[in-house]
Amino acid sequence: MSEGKHSNWQSSKGLAKSILHDRPARRRAMGRSVALLLGMFAIGLWGIDGWLKAELMRFVLWWGACGFLAIFVMLFGLYDVMRVIREERERL
User: Fold this and answer.
1) Which of 6, 43, 75, 90 is most exposed by smallest CB count within 10 Å?
2) Cβ–Cβ under 8 Å, residues 44 and 66
3) Where are the chain's structural domains?
């Protein structure tokens, strides 16, 4: 493996770890994810609904991506709940 790819991988891991272990950063990331999800829903329902209706594959891909993002947001929220419980238990 080249040094550049190893370095990028390590920096990405470090960034993810810092976001997941810092409560305010985690909440900001969750808020941005929810805002993106709501934006995608709004665009799909009112912005490009005619374009999505024109072809079945576009419709399936768009709403599949929205579904994937919704599952991601729910899992992220579940992780946050579990992490907060763990942090509060450790604090006591």
Assistant:
1) 90
2) yes
3) 27-91
